[in-house]
Amino acid sequence: MASSRHPTTWRRPPRISTAELIASGADSVDLHKDAFRERSKAFMEKLVAYKTRIFTEENEARASLTETKAKLQAKARDIEAETQVAKAREIAMIDEMAKEREEMAEAEAAVAGVKKQLVAAKAKLADLEREADHFTAIVDDWQQVRQREQSILESSATAIQPDIQVLESALGCVIEGMPNEHILIRFWNIDPSQPDRECTFVIDPSGPQYIVPSSSPRLPSMGILVDRLNDNGDVFGFIILVRQAFAKLFSPS
Quick count: other Cβ atoms within 10 Å of Cβ 48? Predict the structure, then answer.
């Protein structure tokens, strides 16, 4: 700390002349010791104040340096932590980008596979369309042939229809087509008491064996007759035998 006293103004001591001292005959010489002491004391006070100020400033600078160093170290730790976080994010982004590239490659491979399948499907579709066109042409030709045959059959049927009616009337039998490929056979002139009474039965030839799903009236021997039909395949003979069986139902004997 600097002294609160005002420093003594320094004054240069007067020159001492040896010749003058000898000429004066004085017993002593005034060396101005008090002034010297005063100046020495003021110098020491200034020196102590300077040292104190330098020490204080040095301590303050050291404290400031320590504080600044601590702040810089804390800042460095923060920067290091942020750097580690940034590195972790960068690694995660690199991994994510690698994963996305892998997924993109897989997607591109899948798309290429689908495109290849689509090309194959289009080629197969073109083959199927050509095949369908071929079968359509065949069906059209077959339908035309069938229509011609149907026309011929209808013309023939029209021509022989009077003869068929004469035969049906004479035989007392009519054979008619039914849905699901069934055949209806109708008989009359079987019951002597009622010549117009009809006896009917249905044949189903669509399966591997002939079936008679219904008959009117019911014939007890129908099962045996059907077995014989399936053995020999003689449909017309079977119709004759069924007519005879119906006739026996109404025979007086």
Answer: 13
Q: Are residues 179 and 152 in the same domain?
A: no
Do 225 and 143 share a domain, yes or no? no
Domain final residue pick, 160, 189, 207:
160
Domain that holds residue 233: 172-249
Round to whole Å and give the CA distance between 133 and 139: 10
> Could you tell me which residues are beta bridge partners of residue 211?
204
Of 116, 140, 160, the position where a domain reaches its end is 160
CA max distance for the chain? 213
Cβ-proximal residues to 243 (8 Å cutoff; 6+ apart), any chain: 173, 187, 190, 199
Whether pTM exceeds 0.90 = no
Identify the three-state secondary structure at position 16: coil
Residue 246: φ, ψ to 5°:
-60, -40
- Tens of pLDDT along 75-84? 888 888 888 8
Q: What one-letter code names the amino acid at 197? A: R
C-beta atoms surrounding 173 within 10 Å: 18
- Compute CA distances 24 → 20, 27, 141, whole Å: 6, 9, 172
Dihedral sign, Cα of residue 106, residue 108, residue 113, residue 117: positive
Question: Per the structure, how many domains does the chain have?
Answer: 2
Query: What are the tens digits of pLDDT across the range 90-112?
Result: 888 888 888 888 888 888 888 88
- Whether 147 and 195 map to the same domain: the answer is no
